[in-house]
Structure formats: C-alpha cells, structure tokens
Amino acid sequence: MSQATSVTGAGAHSASTPNQGKLSHDIFISYSRRDSNFVRKLYGALCELNHSVWVDWQEILPAEEWWKAIESAIESANTFVFVISLTSIRSDICRREIEHAIHHNKRLIPVVLHEPVEPQDREAIHTAVSVHNWIFFRQEEEFARNLQRLVQAVNTDLKYVRAHTRFLMRALEWDRAGRDRSFLLRGKDLKAAEEWLAQGTGQQPPVAPLHTPYIISSRRAQTQQQRLTLGAVCIALVGLTVLAAVAVAQKQTADEQRQEALNQRQEAITQRQRAERQRERAEQGERTAEEAKRTAEAAQKAEAERRKEAEAARTAEAAQRARAEAAQKAEAERRREAEVARQEAQQRLIQAFVSESEARFLADEGLESLITAVKAGQLFRSLHSGKATTGQATTQTQIAASLQQSLYASQERNRLVGHSDKVTSVSFSPDGQILVSGSADRTLKLWRLDGRLLRTLDEPQTRISSVVFSPDGQVFASSTDRVLKVWSRDGRLLRTLPTNHGNTITAIRFSPDGRTLASASRDATVKLWSLDGRLLRTLSGHQGFVQAISFSPDGRTLASASQDKTVKLWNVVDGAVRQTLAGKDGMNCVSFSPDGRSVATGGEDDAIQLWQVANGQLIKTLSGSPSRVAGSNSRDLAGITNLQFSRNGKALVSSRSDGLLQTWNIETGRFRLLSGTGAAVASLSLSPDGRTLASAGADKLVHLWNLAPGFSASDTLYSASFSPNGQWFATAGEDQGIQIWRTEGNAQLPAKVLPGDDPLYGLSFSPDGRFLASGGDDNLVKLWDIQRGWAPRSLKGEGHGDGIRSISFSPDGRLLASASLDETIKLWDIRQGRLLRILQHSDYVRSVSFSPDGQMLASSGDDKTIKLWRVANGTLLKTLNGHSSSVAAVSFSPDGRLLASASEDNTVKLWRVADGQRLHTITGHDGGVKSVSFSPDGRVLASSSADGTVKLWNVSDGSLLNTLVGHFNDVRRVVFSPNGRFLLSVSDNPTTNSANPTVILWNLGLNDLIARGCERLHDYLKTNPNVNAQDRRICLP
User: What class, spelled out in words, does domain 25-156 have in CATH?
Assistant: First the structure.
C-alpha cells in the first residue's frame, strides 16, 4: 500500500472484506493502487477458492481512523501478501504495512507483478521482502500456475497460523485494555494456548512478541485463583471440627442434667444410653477424621498440581526465552549475512565499474570511462572509510589506476549535443565566452563555454558549410551553399551577402582588421568581400576545389589550400600569387604562424609541412601515425583535416580523418595524442587563452578538450628514483644528464638538471636523502651531495670495466651496490668511498637490490639467473632459475619475504626468499618486462614492459588489477613513491616522433583523483542532456 487507502485516495491500496469488529481473515493484500487491475483479478481468484481476503477498496468504515483500520486488518489476517512492483517498493505506506506485519510476526508471502532489475530498484525492496521466496505473476501464463503455489503457501500449517492470529487478537485486546485481568485466558482456552506456545519453536511464522507475556499472565492469574479457593476450603474444615466438638459437649451436659432429675430407677437405662452415645461419638469422630483426611489429601493434590503447573509455566517461559534468544541470534546472523552479501554485491559492482571504465577507455569513450571510474571510486569510498584490508587496498589501486588513466590519456572535458547531422564548422569568440557551430542539419548554435546552449538559428535553405567570428567578436559570419550571412553576437541576422560562386562555399575567414570577408569554394576560386556585400576581388588559379583559407597576421597575404595538391599565397592588395607550395597529395588545410613568417599545410598524405612565407621553401615535415600502444598498427593512414597554431607559435594542433587529435612540438617535431572522437573531424577552433580546443565533425557533436601539458623530456630515459620524502624524483637516460623534478604541481620542465654526457642507467637516492647515486656508460659510480649544492664525486678504487646498469643503497645508507655489463657486482663503503668486495655473474648483470633488513643482496642478468648473496661476507646463498631469457630487474617486497623478477621472456615471477620457492609466474605483457616495483604496503606489484604499458598485479594471487596506457615505446623503469600515492614510469622516446611524455607520474591517491575527475566532468555532467539523472549526481556532495 502507498499514499492512501480509500477509493478516493491518490496512491496505493491495500485489500478488503468488512471490518466490523475484530473478524479474522485468511489474507491481507498490500499493493500499489497502480496495480489495482491485477489485485482485483487475484482477489477474485482467491475468493472463488473460499478464502476470505481483506482489500481496502470498499469496506473501511467511515467512522474508523484510516491507519488504525489498516493495522487492525493486518493483525486479524492469517497471511500478509505483498504485491511487488516498481511503485509498491517505493511506497511509504506499503513499507509501514510491512513493518506492522513484521512487528506481529505475520506470515509474509511476496508475489511479483513487475520484477525490479535495476540496482537502485533492488535496493528499494524491504529487507523482509527480499529474504522470502517470491511467487511470480509477471505474465498471464504464470498466473494460473503460481496461483496454486500461493494457495498452497497460505494453507501450509493453517491450524497453527489460525491459532497464531486468534491468540494475537486476544493478546492485543488485553494489551490495549491496559492488560485488564478480565481479558486473560482461562480453562480450556488457556490450556490450548499453552500447548500452541510450546509447539511454536521453529514454526513459521514465529511467535509474536505479545504472545508469550499474554499466555504467561493468564496462567499466573489462574494459579492465584486456585490458591484462594484452597485456603477457603481449609478454613471451612477447621470450623466444622470445632462446631462438632461444641455440639457434643452441650449434648452431654444436657443429658447429665436430665439424668440427675430421673429416678435412680432408670440407672441401667441411663448407662446403656451413655454407652450408645459414646459409640456414636466415636463413629462421628472417625467420620470427621476421614473427611479431614480426604480434604487434606485433596489440598495436597491441588498444591502438587499447582506446583506442576507453575513448573510447566516456568519451563514454557524458559523455552520462550531460549526461542527469543535463538531468534535474536538468528536475526543477528541473518543481518550479518545480509550485510556481507550487500558488501559482496557492492564489491562486484565496483569491479564491474572498473571493467567498464577500461572497456570504454579502449573504445575512445574518454568521458564515459571517467564517469564510470568516478562511480567506482565514490562507491568504494562510501564502503571503506577506515584502514583498507589487503583486498580493499588492491581494489583501491585498481580504481585509482582507472581514474588516472582516464584523466591522463584523454583530455576531453565536454560534449555539446544538439545538432542532428554532421557539424561542419566551429569557432570561438575572441573573448572565449561563446562558441558558434554550424551543421549540415541547417542550423547554427550559440553555446556558452560550459556547454549550455544559448540559441539555435535555423537556415532552412541548405546546410551550413563554415562559421567564423570577427576579430572584435561583435559579429560572426556563416556560409551556406553560395550565400554569406553576417550575424550579431547574440544571433540577430544583420545582412545577407549573395555570392556569384559557381559551386558550394567550403570556408570563410575574416581579415585581421575585420573589414574583409574571404570565401573559398569548390569552384576553385577565393573571393574577397566587404561587409556591405561588395565583391572586392576574385582570386583564380587553382585547378581543383579550394578546401581552406587563412589570412596572415598583418592581413596582406591570404593562403589557400586546394585539392590540386598546392597551397597558394596571394597578395591581398592586388590578387597576385606570391608563392605556390606543392604538396604530394590533395591539400585540406592551411594556417599562418602568429608571427606570419611561416605557414603550415596538411593534406591526404598524413603529413604536415612547414614553409617559409618569404621564399616558399619547405622548413620541415611533421609526420607520425599515432597508436594507442607502442607497436600497435591499429590506425591506418589518414589525412590531416585541420591545422591551427598555438598562440605562441611553438605548437600546432591537428586533426585527422580517423578522428584523432594531435598536438605537435614544432621545434622537436614530436607529437602528443589528445585521444579521438571515432569520427572524421571537420573543424577545429582554439580558445583565445590556448587552454581549450573545440573540435567538430561527423559524429554530430562539438567536443571540448583540455590542452594542459604534463611532464616533458625529449630523450629516452632508462632510470628513475624517488627521494625518501617523496617530494622529488630523479630521471636519467640517453644523453641529458640527470633531471630533478618536483612531485607535486604541474611542472613541465625539471626543477634542476645535473650535467652529464654519457647515458645513465642507474639512479638511487640514499635513505637519508643526502646523496643521489648515478651510474652509466662512463663505468663510474658518482655521488651527488645534495646538501652541498649537488656537488659530485666518484667512488675511487677498482672501477667497473664496462657500463653500469643498476645501483642500490643499503637500508642504513652505508653501502652501495653497482651492477655492470662487466659481469660483476661491486659493493662500496660510502663513508670511505672504497671498494669492499666483488661478486661474480657469468654474463651481463642488469639489476641489483638490497633486502629491507640489509643482510641480503639480489642480482640478476643475462645469464637468466637470480642470485641471492649474504652482504656481510659475499657468500652466494641461492641461485634462482626459471626464466628463459635475460632477467632485467629484481625487487624485494617491503617485508623482505618475497622477491619479484622481471624478464625479457615477457614474464614476472614471484619468489619466496626463505627457500627460493617460485610462487607465481605472471604473464600478460606482450614484450620483455623491464622493471618491477612493490607498493609500500606490499600488496601491489607494478611492472613495465617493452609493450609500452605499465601493469598492476595483485601480489597475493598474481592476478592483473589494471593496465596503464600512455607511453609509446619501451617503459624502462617503474617505481612507487614512498607514500604509495604516485607511480613513476619512464620510457624510450618513440620512433614515430610522438611527443607523448617519456615521464609519466601516475597519481594513485583516490581522493585526489576523484576530485580531479569531478572537476574535469563538471560542465559535462551539468549541461549534457544525454547524462542520466543518476550519473548527473555522482559528484554532488
């Protein structure tokens, strides 16, 4: 039932026969009014089977209070039937009815009309309903079949259930009358009730809370009455004996007085009479004694019976207490199991969210991937507020990795939804507050930067081909088939400029001073117009469609890109061709640099050319086919569709016909992938502050992207190390020396660079943070003294004979181990700077690591083995075999019990240090594994590989938790920060000219990541109409 219980109410109903007095019923039906048709059918079917059914649609008396009538009907019904539907499970009245039935331990039978399947609907079902077996009436064929199941359930233990109802009604009357003794049970009723109570253990429904005190109170009242009766009997017996004695004495005195008056002659008669009287008295005494004996025996028997009844009552009360305690324990266990089941369900939901986030990420659905990851994080945080267990910690790492990947790999922050066909053009206003888009659906739309639609302008004649704001931002222009229109900023049409183009207009641009509007057409010409509609000049010379145009910053030159494989530079003043730039294929786009000295062109050959404007000479070609993972060939060759310079002229943004967006470093020629839309991109526009990119295309959407950069290192990196306090990290590689970075913040460049010319492969901060040790192809171990301004010194003594590949400090900072291609490990005394001993391998040594207690050293190399050494004397303790190729790295777990090894055989192995037993062989990488690192709590293992990925593994069972994608080539080193909040990975520079950073700092702090995710999603959740109501609330407090 919900909302109301009369036929004139507006909500749900319950079910009825007349409620005149406390009549009992077989069935009470609780339901939602929207389900009335079904309930009437069910009501009729049950009545035909001779069941009395209570339904509220006609018989609640006007004088009765509504809720009291409902309560009374529930109390007097043998069975409570609840009709499950999507409306009844959320009804407050239905919930109250269920609670009242539960309070009186009524038999509850749920029947299903509409089965809830959504998680939020399942959670709305009352717990008491969810734990029972449901009877389904969802379809017509289920009705007849399951009606018999319902009737069978109603008739089960019917005698017991009816007694349950009858004694409950009597008990409620007694309770509501202030527990007046006159309402208690007596005689046969009491005996029947006690027998029913005794058999109630384990029965369903269980005895109600009021049953036991009512029956026990009835027994006590009857026992008290018996005691009063027995006392009256005893008093009567004593009085009778006394009266008898008095009567005898009086009679004797009278006889003696009469005898004295008689003549002595009758002495013999008198003696005879006295003897008879004495005999009579003796007989009377015997009769009186016998009666007293019988009375005493009866009293004793009654007392024994009373004691027996009292013992029985105590036994029944003890049994009831035991049943109550058992019920309480059972309920507590049920609640515990329900809570465990709920948490397991929530955990499964979290895992489903993580898997969905991963799948959406791989499908280029960046915002959806981020939303799902945030949902997983929010749900996990709501379930686990305290210290995480092992399982919770690994789940938290999975969620954090999904969030970090979604935030890092895709920079999309909003999608503007509203067009019904391809979006052909998009343009920011110069103040960055408004965005205009044009579409093949024949509409123009004005948007706020947060994604809110301001206005829609209809162009019924034909599709929109191009839109552009004027330099002062007061007007914007649009082109349709062969017509130009000028609009005010707020969308009022100011003027229409018919053109004499012989074919469709493809692009329009304002001159920098805003006085001239240029139009390009598929008729192979470019025309220059004044804003009042006068044709100023026609630029002819192309032999194919003109696809794009661009004014130089000074407005004197116009560049046009054509399908005839050329870009022409025109003198705006006289229309003369200054330069003709020849490409290899059709040219799709062109853009002047902010200083006007160079022009960028892009075409079908998937390359970007930079040209000198002055002489038309080719400066450089930018090319590179992006892929999601290193070595992937998932992207076919695709043409460049749009180009735009950054405001400082140092970078370019480009789009491709396969939907991918790239940012290019013009100096280095390397690119970074922004992600993609999955559809061809027709237009790009960069916001005035250079922080937001708008793209539009065949998917009918306008996408907004962040252009915030990350860490940038231009050369291959081989090694990395965190400082002990986690505030800094160092990286080193091919030929740049050592870079020192701040962990917090958004630094794009290192805070400090330590000089060096030779490649460096080994880096390690000392445990006290005073020194940074490095080693590489100069065969030297160098110590950089941080406290003395990073002053370097080399360890003296017998150095290595070949390049150093790994360095490790002992936990107390007194020793340092270095591993080399000269097949040795050298142990050094840091304080004295001298060599202590040399340990030997049979091939190149690739890695070395101290155990947490400092007593053991692990090393590995190209001989495919792992060796464990005693540090104190250099004794070889164990050699671990099992890898089929070079072992690139080893790492101890924080507790020193486990050792992880990474190998070129594409596997990671986990070993038990105590006995050298191999516990797990972890597979999943598609290339050689270069590095491994344990999280500070030892629950997660990170590995990096030549397949360009970082993977996170559950240490307890070796299962994969997550894969982090972001590098485009071999990931050489991976290391956790001391507090576990960050994971650092460094890689080779990709050969494809990708500028995707060789340094990635993955943030694994869940709260920070959720906050960043919600910040990224703010506008999308607020304005995108396709976001469902539940998702729209995920970031609300």
Answer: alpha beta
